Amino acid sequence: MAVEIDxxxxxxxxxxxxxxxxxxxxxxxxAVAFLRPEREELFxxxxxxxxxxxxxxxxxxxVDGSIFLILPETDxxxxxxxxxxxxxxxxxxxxxxxxxxxxxxxxxxxxxxxxEERTKNKFGYFLEKYFRK
Length: 133
What we know:
By secondary structure, the protein is an alpha+beta fold. It is 45% helix and 23% strand. The protein has a 5-stranded mixed beta sheet, sandwiched between helices. A hairpin with a 2-residue loop joins strand 3 and strand 4. The N and C termini lie far apart (32 Å). The mean pLDDT is 94.
């Protein structure tokens, strides 16, 4: 079961994962994800499924009907596996975008910018409201 945090701490935890990686080489990789159900009534079901299937080391937060994840030791291949399972389970009714450290960014700012750009380009969602002041 994933660890749930307040959204206000999300960027701090991404920073912490990067610091652990640089200092201890663990995690060597991790994924940051954005998930949002296509229909509002699916949110509680999506959140429950995500909480139950993720590992004890995975981190989850939600805000405004969206879910953000930090998945330590999850590379692109692992993120694609998770994405396919969620897609199949919810019959394609979930928007999902994943970015990977260090491939998509070596700083929190770079990772979040990659997540914002991919989400905007793929689905038209603007995440800047969550991360830009």
